[in-house]
Amino acid sequence: MSNSSSLYPVGKKALQSRYVSGELIFYTPSGTEIYRINPTTAVITYASGSTVKLASGASLVDASEAVVAALGTTTANAAVLSADQNIITGADGTKGVRLPLGVAGKDVVVINSVGTSILKVYPDTGGQINAGGANVAFSLGPGHAAVFYCTAALVWYVPASAATAATPTELALLNGAGTGGTPVASKVQVADANQNIGAVKATALHIGATGAEVQVTATPAEINLLVGITAGSNTASKVVSRTAAQGIPLAMSVVAALGATAGDGAPLTKDLNLVTGANGTLCVVLPVGVADEVIVVVNTVANQVLPVFPNGTENINGLGAGVVYTIGAARRATFACTVPGVWYVDSLTAALPTVTEQNVLAGATAGTAVASKAVVLNAAGHTSAVKTAALSIGASGVEVDKTNVLIGVAAGYKIARGVSAVTGTATVATGLTTVVAITATAQDNLDGDALAGVSATIGNQAGAPVAGSVILNTWKVTVGGAAGNPTLIAATVAKNLNWVAVGV
Questions:
Q1: Which has the closest alpha carbon to 165: 186, 188, 139?
Q2: Verdict on whether the full-model pTM lies above 0.70
Q3: What residue numbers bound the domain in which 331 lies?
C-alpha cells in the first residue's frame, strides 16, 4: 500500500477517499477531512479527534448519505435529517437542521458545506446537545464537519471543537505571542500569573456599551483612586462610593479628651469623633480647616462640657482667632468649614443651663414680678414693682447709687439737663414735652464784669417760648442806679450755663 493515492469519488457530490500513509481517509466534496480508518490498529479517527476502535470480528456497514438544504429558524421548522451522513447547504447563520430520533449508540455526521456561515443543528424534539438545554441548537462552524453521538434517548453529544472556530488569520495572532505579561506587537496579549500585562500603548481608552462608549480622560493617578474601593465604605486615599441605598458611612474614631489648650488637646482626625473623658477642662482640637469639610464631635460624657479648639489661628463662629467653643454635656455638634480656617457650628450645641437654672423660667409671667423666678418685661418694656436693697445706674464700672433718686417727685415727671452757651438771653429746647420747672447755674466763674449772675424761666410754654423750651439769661454789672448801687444788664459775652429741667 502506497503512502498516497488519488481521490476516489463514490458518486456526484459524494464523499471522496484516498489512502495516505496506510490510512483510508474520507473527505467532503469540498475536501474537508471527515474521518480516517487505520486497518492495522482497527481505529477510526474523526476530524474532531474522537476515535472508535473496532472489536475483533466487527464490521462496518455502509452509511447512508444525503444532501440537505438548511431550513427554518427553530427546532419545529428546521430541516429533518434522516441519513447517517448529511451534507448541508444553505446555512446563513439562522437556518438549521434537526437530528433524527435518538437511539443509544446512534451517530450522525453533519457537514456544513458553507464556508462563511454557521449552521444551527437542533436535537430531536425534546432532546438536548451537550447539556445545552431542551431543543437548544448547537452552532456548527463554517466549513466544519461533526459527528453527533446519541448516548441515550434525547441525549446527544458532539465535540465542542466543531463549533465556530478561529480563522487562520485569527489563529496567527497566537503564533509568536510573548510570554505571559510581555506585550508583543500584532499578537494576542497574555497576562502573567498575577494577571498583569506590561505597558500597553493606546491612543485612547473608551468605556461603555457598544455604540455608547465614552472616552476616559482621567490620569493614571485619578484612575488609581478607584482601585480597591468598596461601595459604602471608607478606604484611605481612595474615592468614596455610595451604597445601593445611597449611603456613605462616616469614618469614625473614639477620642479621649486631653490637655487644656489648642497646643495639647486631642487632635480630631476622622469625620465622626466620639469623645470620652470630658471633665470641663480636657479638650479636643479640630483639624486644619478645608473648604466644605464637615467634622462631627460627640461629647459622650453626660455631666461635663467639652472644650473644642480651632487649629492654630482659625476661628469658630467668628469668636476670634484660636477662641474655644464649648459643647454641652452629652451633646453632638457638627462643625462645617466654609473657607479654609473658618468654621461654623450650631450655637444650640453649646453648654446649656442646668435643670436648676432653667427652673427659674418655669412660672415666670411677662410684666409681673414673681418670687424666685426670672423677671420678664411686658410688651411695653415694663414689669411690676421689684424690690431691691440698692439701685445703681450708669455704665459698667461707673454705676451711681440711686437709692433715693426722685423720691417725692410727682408720678410721670422726667428730668432733662444740659450745658448751653448764652450771650445775654437764649431759648433752649430741653427735649421734654412740657417743662414745669427749670434751674440754671453758671459753669464759668462769676467775675462781676462779664458775668455777674444767671437766671432761668419756663415762660408760658405756649409760644413764649414754645412748649419744652426754656429761657436762660446771663447778666453783667454796670455802674449807676440809685444811691450808687450797681445795675445788672444783659451780658455781652457768651458764657456756659448748666441747666436742669423737670417736665413731662
A1: 139
A2: no
A3: 252-349
